[in-house]
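Take a look at the protein record below and flag anything odd:
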Amino acid sequence: MTASDLLDAVRDDQQTELSRLGSSKTLYADTGGEMNPEAVRAAAAAREQAAHDTFSAWADDESDDAAAALFADAAGDAADRLDDVGADPADRDFAMHDVLDDFESTVERLGGLVGWALVDEKTKGQLTGFFTGQADPQTASTFRSARSDIEVLREEAAELLDENCENDDDWDAAEAAAVDVVAAAYDDYFETLEDLGVNPKPVC
């Protein structure tokens, strides 16, 4: 397997989940139904705070120098995005970070980072669309640039997987980690929307 194969496998396995996570209902779930700019900013800030905390802890604990540097960069980027959002984080927990925080091996963490990036790219796309709709092009541009940064981070994690995965077991562990992260994000999304009285499934 290669990193490209892994990405294809995760996208194929979680196709429906990623598609739904790319809908505007993600922001509705994040904000508890308060779809106004202040609530959306606070929810976005909560995601960046969670990312910073997870990746900072990984960087401090990681034994592989290249992976540790990547995790430190990811944590620093999340801190920068938190500053750019310009809001205090909402009181929001994210199930996918509970999953991420449990990963201990380098390949699991790199796979988890790939899964997190696939989810976060979807969220950044919705944030871009939301602020475009709010006639706030500057904020929309901020999130559009952030999405590009996340895509680069995903590719860098994938490259390190190519270097760190020595056998099929390593690739299986990385793929399982990525799938588990996406699945946790989707279950969180689904359950939150149900609690809000919203049908999580698209209506055709």
Notes: The longest helix spans residues 106-133. Residues 62 and 105 are 8 Å apart (CA to CA). The radius of gyration is 16 Å. The chain has a mean pLDDT of 95.
